[in-house]
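Tip: read the tokens left to right.
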């Protein structure tokens, strides 16, 4: 039987229509929710239209690269489509830890992808980069392996051992990457969420977040919360935060961003992940 996640990726993972145009209508309107979907324009050059009944269509101006289309399609478009479908989209990079998933959340540039790629050398294979789409099953949040290619800043390849592939878009020193350590699991539950913070101290810390703080900080992991707020109702958001805090353990990982300490802090996190074998949530 096809799961809801499988059906979602089948419906939205490919573009139903791809059309080059010299001019795009309403290109100054970044995000526009409509009945049964939304329109989103990227830098006035790329326009995506998502409708629940017909999937994703794309219109773009000459000079747009295939990598740019894939970046936005597999990211913002599919993430927002997931919210429309009643699924949950998180802005995280995730690794497999035993029979479950550990997802890392943080602001853009916090090092989620770099850390996830590096953890592969410590026995935690990459499961998803940047976006994790969840469904509810048997009392847990479950996910399928990442639908997006791993992408890293140019200076992260030496740290992770990943192999540099094509550039995302001209002028930005970020590249798709090939990583040998990738999870082969088809469906896994999300058991732990690690919130990345930066500290001035050389010694990293890893602490569990509980109580009211746990509920509040679940929001730090949401994908495009600014746009999600235009889709979700207030009561739905509150219910989701409570549900996440009930079904997933939340941790804070504070570390220095000094490159010379990267290997040490990554080993520190890997040792802590080794202790997350009990899937029960407290």
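Filled-in amino acids:
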């Amino acid at each position: 039987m096809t799961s809801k996640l499988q059906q979602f990726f089948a419906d939205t993972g490919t573009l139903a229509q791809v059309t080059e145009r010299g001019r795009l209508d309403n290109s100054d309107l970044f995000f526009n929710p409509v009945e049964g979907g939304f329109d989103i324009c990227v830098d006035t050059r790329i326009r995506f239209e998502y409708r629940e009944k017909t999937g994703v269509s794309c219109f773009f101006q000459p000079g747009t690269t295939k990598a740019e289309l894939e970046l936005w399609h597999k990211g913002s478009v599919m993430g927002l489509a997931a919210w429309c479908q009643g699924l949950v989209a998180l802005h995280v990079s995730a690794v497999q830890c035993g029979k479950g998933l550990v997802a890392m959340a943080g602001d853009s540039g916090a090092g989620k992808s770099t850390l996830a790629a590096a953890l592969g050398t410590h026995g935690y294979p990459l499961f998803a980069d940047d976006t994790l789409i969840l469904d509810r099953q048997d009392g847990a949040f479950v996910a399928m392996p990442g639908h997006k290619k791993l992408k890293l800043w140019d200076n992260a390849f030496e740290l992770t051992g990943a192999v540099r592939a094509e550039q995302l878009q001209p002028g930005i020193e970020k590249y798709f990457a090939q990583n040998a350590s990738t999870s082969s699991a088809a469906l896994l539950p999300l058991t732990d969420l690690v919130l990345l913070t930066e500290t001035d101290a050389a010694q990293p810390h890893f602490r569990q977040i509980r109580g009211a703080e746990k509920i509040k900080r679940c929001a730090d992991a949401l994908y495009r919360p600014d746009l999600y707020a235009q889709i979700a109702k207030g009561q739905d958001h509150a219910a989701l935060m409570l549900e996440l805090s009930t079904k997933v353990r939340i941790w804070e990982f504070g570390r220095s961003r000094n490159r010379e300490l990267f290997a040490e802090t990554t080993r520190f996190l890997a040792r802590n992940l080794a202790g997350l074998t009990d899937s029960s949530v407290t």
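The chain has two domains: 4-86, 89-273. The chain has a mean pLDDT of 87.
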